[in-house]
């Protein structure tokens, strides 16, 4: 059932964005979208200065429009858990710190934090790579089915590749493939020492829905996980598939707020062998640009609907948590 919903939603999203892109394509051939390049680098500033300034269509954003023309709205980290399609341009370097907090089970005390220190680099204007050091913290007490754990450890290494297939500058919408393999030293759920190999893939679409005022993104998520706990004789294999949708709007030239929703399914086995549960997360997002080409993004998602296999109770708190918070800050140099 979910596979039919997944296929239909993806096709609908792609068709609707493509149709809207055709309507606005003549306008985007000029300077209205030239600002989306990462214009804070000197050669791009010079390029934009040769063009007339874009007209201000909304008085409330008079301060934001000149900034957008000169610097652009970068969507990669604009939303939250849902990603935007922008990538680092050729030669650009970035450093970011990310923390993802997961809290809340059916009973007991459960808190887990994944930490990441990431360095990214633009190989071309359409392809960027990143390498990361991972950390993990777990505090688990009296949670049924889980051992009591209190650990803080260096947790492994991660890589990331982002390949932009279509740019908003020329197509009216962005389309990017993202893949993120990881090696970790603990189980994300239990916090116990383990060897974990994981792979997260995203198909990312985004579009400026209302010029300078509303940005939207749509993600298709696919995850694979191979975990063997220390001393265990069996290996656990799992997979997830999901959809995400997000909106963001500027309050000023440096502050964006928005909301997002993610619908996830968990399976046993790498090939979606046995359904384990589903969850719907919704919550607000916040993004701010800081001085010196720095930025910070904050997102909070709460599980508002879901159900685990064989459990008639509301919410799936076996495979997912009740609350998830993501804080990521970075800078380019």
Short description:
This protein is mainly beta.
At the first level of CATH, the class is Mainly Beta
> At the fourth CATH level, what is the homologous superfamily?
monomeric porin ompg
Q: What is the percent of helical residues?
A: 10-25%
Mean pLDDT: 85
Tally of discrete structural domains: 1
Strand content: over 45%
Lateral arrangement of strands in the main beta sheet:
1-2-3-4-5-6-7-8-9-10-11-12
Q: Which quaternary structure do these chains form?
A: single chain
Structural class by secondary-structure content: mainly beta
Q: How many helices?
A: 4
Distance from first to last alpha carbon:
47 Å
Largest sheet: 12 strands, antiparallel, barrel
Q: Runs with pLDDT <50, length 5+? A: 1-7, 9-71
* DSSP strand count: 12
Q: According to CATH, what is the topology?
A: Porin
| Shape, per Cα inertia axes | globular
Query: Rounded to an integer, what's the Rg over CA atoms?
Result: 21 Å
Helix and strand string, N-terminal first? HHHEEEEHEEEEEEEE
* CATH architectural designation: Beta Barrel
């Amino acid at each position: 059932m979910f596979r039919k919903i997944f296929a239909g939603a993806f096709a609908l999203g792609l068709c609707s964005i493509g149709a809207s892109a055709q309507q606005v394509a003549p306008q985007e051939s000029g300077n209205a979208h030239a600002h989306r390049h990462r214009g804070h680098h000197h050669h791009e500033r010079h390029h934009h200065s040769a063009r007339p300034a874009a007209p201000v269509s909304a008085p409330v954003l008079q301060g934001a429009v000149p900034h957008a023309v000169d610097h652009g709205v970068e969507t990669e980290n604009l939303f939250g858990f849902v990603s935007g399609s922008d990538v680092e341009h050729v030669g650009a370097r970035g450093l970011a710190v990310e923390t993802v907090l997961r809290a809340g089970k059916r009973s007991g005390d459960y808190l887990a934090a994944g930490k990441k220190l990431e360095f990214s680099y633009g190989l071309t204007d359409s392809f960027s790579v990143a390498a990361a050091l991972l950390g993990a913290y777990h505090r688990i007490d009296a949670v049924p089915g889980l051992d009591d754990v209190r650990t803080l450890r260096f947790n492994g290494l991660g890589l990331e590749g982002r390949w932009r297939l279509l740019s908003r500058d020329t197509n009216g919408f962005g389309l990017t493939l993202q893949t993120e393999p990881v090696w970790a030293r603990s189980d994300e759920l239990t916090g116990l020492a383990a060897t974990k190999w994981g792979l997260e893939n995203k198909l990312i679409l985004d579009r400026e829905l209302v010029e300078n005022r509303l940005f939207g993104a749509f993600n298709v998520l696919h995850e694979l996980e191979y975990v063997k706990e220390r001393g265990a004789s069996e290996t656990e294999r799992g997979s997830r598939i999901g959809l995400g949708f997000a909106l963001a709007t500027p309050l000023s030239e440096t502050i964006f707020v928005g909301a997002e929703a993610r619908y996830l399914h968990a399976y046993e086995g790498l090939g979606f062998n046995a359904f384990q549960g589903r969850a719907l997360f919704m919550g607000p997002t916040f993004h701010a640009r800081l001085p010196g080409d720095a930025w910070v993004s904050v997102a909070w998602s709460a599980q508002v609907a879901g159900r685990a296999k064989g459990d008639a109770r509301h919410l799936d708190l076996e495979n997912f948590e009740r609350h998830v918070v993501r804080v990521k800050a970075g800078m380019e140099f």
